[in-house]
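Limitations
The structure tokens in this dataset are predictions for the assembled complex, not deposited experimental models. Users should treat interface geometry with appropriate caution, especially where small molecules or nucleic acid strands are included. An illustrative entry is reproduced here so readers can see what is and is not provided.
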Amino acid sequence: MSPHSTHAVPGVSGILKRHWRLVLYPVGMIPAVWLVWQGQHGALGADPVNVFERSLGLWAFRFLLACLALAPLRRFTGLNLLRYRRLTGLLAFFYASLHLLAYVGLDHGFDWSVLWVDITHRYFIILGMSALVLLIPLALTSNALSMRLLRRRWKFLHRLIYPAAILAGIHFFLSFKTLNSVSAPYLAALALILLSRFLPRSRTGNGI
Amino acid sequence: MALFRYPRPLPSEITPRDMYLSRRSLIGGAAALGAVSATADAETLQTHPGPYSGNLTPTPHEDVTHYNNFYEFGMGKADPATQSQAFHPLPWTLEITGLVRRPVRLDVEQLLRSPAIEERIYRMRCVEAWSMVIPWDGIPLAMLLKDADPDPRATHVAFESIVRPSEMPGQNEALSGIQWPYVEGLRLDEAMNPLTLLALGIYGETLPNQTGAPLRLVVPWKYGFKGIKSIQRIRLLDHEPPTTWNRLAPDEYGFYANVNPQVDHPRWSQATERVIGAHSLFGATRQPTLMFNGYGEQVADLYRGMDLRKNF
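Predicted assembly:
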């Protein structure tokens, strides 16, 4: 299928081509490192915990959207980046987990009495929490072994990303007091990606 | 009513005056180059310490003026400071009309020279669960309302802000669904409470554009959004007026909006608040929120017998 995956290409570019994960995973974590660095150096402003927590959530949503966008991207433009689905999906899970940790630890100082009421009573929190819970089995089975063992069920299981994205989208929308020009483009992107699933298969679409 | 000592903040807590002055000379220099409107320049107010300031340490000037909500200038917390340069707060006329025997039109430039201006250091609790301590300079609202001589039929006070999309970029944001002008309201007895302040300055200087120049409401026992900014019109009414956030989300923001740690916002707890000003991610603090934001002694009587869960 892909010519470069089977035989060795010499040189640095060859190494990068074969081990792109080693490069891209750290690259994907740069925003998190940057946020922590800013936070420790007073660069997140007057309400650093809030900015930190929200930024992590936004990065989780960005990677989730990127992951979801890869299939329609190939379908409508022919550009095949499907091999980055695991990378973007795992990064989404990574940022969502940090987002949760920031909310539980930094924002609420592990105050379980407050957190319990949040988790059991507030639809805003419940939605975000559910999205993360749905991503857990996807992260756990995002390896070749699970794909082999689960076979057809793996594909079915990984459709959970769609309800997770919808829940995360509503949670994201609710994190602002009103709709606005910051949140609207992300929500529009999510809506487009989801709608594209229902578009009829185009005959001119190439079969890459 | 309790007798309040008037403890001044520690000198070390206040940004040194020459630091402001040097900052302002920078702004002034930029203004001379035409980069910044000269109206953004703050002027010193003649002010004197007033009551109710308690034993509070003000939040640094930089945070008070660079972290706030003023949706007329954008939805981000830093937007008001960066996007309010084009706003011209003066000249300005404040109208007090409606059910009054003596309608008033006040020239705000004159009001800024009033000897009645006093300093009030108040806690400010945002409905978003963060808080500051702000040294306001202003005139008790009751003083101005008495001048207008309210009609006995008057039960409520309605406040109206300004619509100036050419100077207020946030008013062009169609997505938010906010109807301009921003409107707020109080019951007449709330408006007449000695704590209720018409602020003309902070930190001894005229209000910067981003904090509601040239004059704004401060109601320290209520959530910050009740403190309507850049007020043009005050009307006395015989009914409860509509208020901006209540109109947008009636289940989340009530007319009263009293700070109440026992009544949560549907999306988050109001029991505690993030204290603004720590700047370090791992050194930030949360503190318990006080009933009526700590002003119960002055205002609890206003709500005796009311179900504050229903009238949130």
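Some entries come with short summary sentences. For this one: Chain A touches chain B through 34 residues (CB under 8 Å).
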